[in-house]
Design goal:
mainly alpha; CHP03643
């Protein structure tokens, strides 16, 4: 199942998933929402796409890290307190 899903992804999608997974602040849940690939499939993809030493460094860094797993109390995306809502989004002419 995991192999089928990874095989259906384009090269650009795979590259983007690797980029998002490498970024410490991007949670696995965000990758799953965008690409439909769960954490175990991301790990499989990273194992395939990275050199062994790079994979081991990445895996050691993200294993158990809270920032790679969204907390249920957090909203789906970060929003700055100074950010206007989309309906009132006008270019500031400071």
């Amino acid at each position: 199942m995991k192999e089928d899903l990874l095989g259906e992804l384009s090269r650009e999608d795979k590259d983007r998933i690797v980029e998002m997974a490498w970024e410490d602040r991007t949670p696995f849940d965000a990758i799953e929402r965008q690409f439909g690939v769960d954490e175990s499939a991301v790990i499989t993809l990273m194992r395939r796409e990275l050199k062994r030493s790079s994979f081991e460094r990445w895996r050691g860094r993200v294993q158990g890290r809270k920032s790679k797993h969204e907390l249920s109390s957090l909203s789906n995306r970060f929003k700055c307190s100074r950010q206007r809502s989309i309906t009132q989004n006008k270019i500031s002419k400071r």
